[in-house]
Structure prediction request, 121 residues.
Amino acid sequence: MNVLRHRINPKTFVITNRQLAKYLKIATTRIWRWEKWAHVLWVHIQGLGGYFISYRQLEQWIAACSTLIRSCRDLKTLTLVWSAIQRESQRYTEEAILRLSQLHEQRLTKLCHYRECDRLS
Prediction:
């Protein structure tokens, strides 16, 4: 878990009321305010009070994981990142895990191909 937290900075995520309302399945007018905290978003919802949302449940986190996978320059780094994603996979939707898994396979194939090319040269 620390591997991803050290490499992904949720403070850089652009989050909108509309996105939060869609995630929470409520009208945007019910969101009074929200704040970015270290590991979660805090959302004040009219009639419900405070509500916490893990960054890992947002599309921005999945996009950041995708970028991490694509930017791995060697197999060791890819293995480290992928094992961190797998350790916390229960926090993601099935669709997100499928997308990340496909990216991992593509990157693994590409890095293995480069490694073979290096050995042949």
